[in-house]
């Protein structure tokens, strides 16, 4: 059985600055997803304009890009069954105040503009975002010894 669906999860500058990276990584590992790519990056305007292409020209775009350039971002790629949809569940709604405790944003966020993480919203978006943030050779193919305990 293939568990090769992948998603892109980024810990935004507020999450990195607040020291939440290990707690966020743990949520995905605890769930049983496999980490196949990780790097700390200082994103530039070009990368962020490509990443947020659907928002270019919107009134909030300059402020959002400025915030995302304000500090390092922990870029990650996770692999597993239904990881895109489940990743969004783990993160919670975009507005942290719409979440009950238990999601990353519900536990660590208060303000929409400081919602700690980004997660791909579809398999297509995940593939596009992964290719923007990672070179193919930066993604590791490996077999998890835990897979037999997670998947039937």
From TrEMBL:
Pfam families: NDK (PF00334)
Keywords: ATP-binding, Kinase, Nucleotide-binding, Transferase
Record EC number: 2.7.4.6
Domain Nucleoside diphosphate kinase-like: 4-141
Alphabetized SUPFAM superfamilies for the sequence: Nucleoside diphosphate kinase, NDK
UniProt-recorded name of the protein: Nucleoside diphosphate kinase
Catalytic reactions on record: a 2'-deoxyribonucleoside 5'-diphosphate + ATP = a 2'-deoxyribonucleoside 5'-triphosphate + ADP
Family matches, as Gene3D superfamilies: Nucleoside diphosphate kinase-like domain (3.30.70.141)
Binding positions (ATP): 12, 60, 88, 94, 105, 115
Cofactor names: Mg(2+)
Active site as annotated: 118
NCBIfam families per UniProt: PRK00668.1
